[in-house]
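#onboarding

Welcome to the new folks! Below is a worked example of what a typical request in this channel looks like: someone posts a single protein sequence, and someone else replies with the predicted structure as tokens. Don't worry about understanding the tokens yet, we'll cover that in week two.

Example request:
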Amino acid sequence: MILGGLDGDSTAYRLMQEGYVDATGVQDLFFEADAIMEALLDAIEKGQAKPEKWIQDPGFALTQENMAEREMDMWGCIILKQAEADTEQ
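Example response:
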């Protein structure tokens, strides 16, 4: 049975580390933050009250197979690793 999820939070990452989840769809918050800032600054420059363009987050799938290469692209992984580092200090 293949188990998967959607979002990319720290619980999904931990469950993937422990081998309980095979894959999760990740909302790319880093892309979203960059894209909205770009859209807001562009709107301000044009004198618009709000951005006019639709921003689509393509996201990505984090799997057991690509986890070693892509885990630091997952916002939940970064939050979990930062919390672990803070606990160790």
